[in-house]
Amino acid sequence: MLDRDGFRPNVGIVLLNQKNQVFWGKRIRTHSWQFPQGGIDRGENPEQAMIRELHEEVGLCREHIRIVARTRDWLRYEVPDRYIRRDARGHYKGQKQIWFLLQLVGHDWDLNLRATDHPEFDAWRWNDYWVPLDAVVEFKRGVYEMALTELARYLPRSEHRNRFLRQGMRPHEQDPAQDAMPGVNFELPPGATFEPDPQTGFCPDSPENSNET
Q1: Which residues pair with 132 in a beta bridge?
Q2: What is the mean pLDDT of residues 8-20?
Q3: Considering the domain boundaries, does residue 68 fall inside one?
Q4: Which end of the chain is more exposed for a tag (fewer CB within 10 A), N or C?
Q5: Residue 157 domain flag
Q6: What confidence category does residue 105 fall into, taking pLDDT thresholds of 50, 70 and 90?
Q7: In terms of Cα–Cα distance, which of 14, 26, 59 is closest to 186?
Q8: What's the structural domain count of the chain?
Q9: Residue 165, domain CATH
Q10: What H or E segment, with its residue span, contains residue 161?
Q11: Which residues, listed in sequence order, are joined to residue 76 by a DSSP beta bridge?
Q12: Does 213 map to a domain?
């Protein structure tokens, strides 16, 4: 389902834990890490699509989360031709997304990457909210920056965040000593594995895995 400009309606999900860290998922059989996202089906509104994608990709249900905020308008990114299926080239241009900021009110063990027969991720971790944009695949960086910036004003208060403010630092300017062992505090859900040295970044999806349409 494309709009008249060639953009597919889509939702993006920023899922927070109690420390205002965000869910970071590794795409199955790749070294690519990203936020959950997915298309809006015909007849769905963005919130309905978000709840469905949340369950399909990370196994959570509506009762496991609190909706904190969403972006006010669509955020768009264009997909380079080399990442678009050949049969979609010429009429598919990219994604337009509504991004949701969610608070996990359940537990880490409620996450389940095998909730469906077609898992999107095979590992996950909690990551600092201000993800390094140079680790994000280039054509998505602008949308990530806009979404995180717009949603940051709605971050719940936490001791983790207040510590940076008291030190006169922005959250993404964390003390390097705190980053000496990134990803130490994370849990894996049923059926998941974790690869050492994930580098917490994205790799451009290969054409056969990207399926951006």
Answers
A1: none
A2: 97
A3: yes
A4: N
A5: yes
A6: very high
A7: 26
A8: 1
A9: 3.90.79.10
A10: helix 159-166
A11: 96
A12: no
Which of 180, 92, 95 is CA-nearest to residue 137? 95
Element containing residue 209 per DSSP (H, E):
helix 207-210
For 86, the token pair is 């050949």
**What pLDDT is stored for residue 137 in this prediction?**
81
157 SS3 class: coil
* Helices and strands, counts by H and E, the chain: 4, 8
Contacts 24+ apart (CB under 8 A), 71-77: 71/97, 71/98, 71/99, 71/146, 71/147, 71/150, 71/151, 72/150, 74/7, 74/9, 74/98, 75/12, 75/99, 75/143, 75/146, 75/147, 76/7, 76/143, 77/139, 77/140, 77/142, 77/143
Quick: pLDDT tens for 56-97: 999 999 999 999 999 999 999 999 999 898 888 889 999 999
Rounded to 5°, angle at Cα 37 from 7 and 146: 70
Q: In 3D, which of 16, 17, 19, 15 has the Cα closest to residue 161?
A: 19
Count the Cβ atoms, other than its own, within 10 Å of residue 22: 21
Provide φ and ψ at 13, rounded to 5°.
-130, 120
Half-sphere exposure of 24 (CA within 13 A, CB side): 27
The rounded distance, in Å, linking the Cα atoms of 83 and 7 is 15
At 158, is the pLDDT very low, low, confident or very high (cuts 50, 70, 90)?
Answer: low
Interacting residues of 194 by C-beta distance below 8 A, sequence separation 6+ = 123, 125, 186, 188
Quote the domain boundaries for residue 23: 7-207
Indicate whether 2 belongs to any domain: no
What's the mean pLDDT when you consider all of the chain?
80
The C-alpha atoms of residue 161 and residue 49 are separated, in whole angstroms, by 30
